[in-house]
Amino acid sequence: MKLHSEMRSVDLDVHECGYENCAPGHSFGPAVREYYLFHYIFSGRGFFRTSENTYHLQEGQGFLIFPDDLNYYQADEDTPWSYGWLGVTGIHAEEYFHQCGLSVKNPIWSGGKDEFMEECLLKMDSAKKPDTARQLKLTGYAYLFLSRMIEKSTLQLSRNKTNRHDAYLQAAVRYMEQNYYRNIRIAEIAEALGGARTHA
Question: What is the reported pTM?
Fold first, then answer.
């Protein structure tokens, strides 16, 4: 569903949205967009290709197309994906996606399958009746969708940091156990683990 809004200086403006249950091998592109376009994968598999990389994706993941970036994407031949999409512009659109951990160098979101995000996209897709409240309704769902993406990204980042910290501590304990008979210095442990002294 493409929307034709003239509001391009607002905080967030929904340019298009939709849902598709793709046929095997269904593809789009190569193409360039003038706005941010995020695809969230409900089920199945496929790949997304930028000018630099090819990403093989599955349910619970998503990919962000940046303005003016050449891209191509295609559904798997055996297990084609179904996805919902949200295309936005606005003065803070880039910042919201940045808070989701997305960038030109890292356009893939891997926050996992989420019923709330799926419901937001489906409700946006079903809001096809033109009326004075439609744009406001779509913008509201877009904010809810992005806020959930940010929440899940923040949680994932926190888990990754905790996992890295725990792994470092376990490696430090192992090193001390293996070298308990020597007079070990903190700097030596940090050097052996390839980290800074402040982490030891």
Answer: 0.74
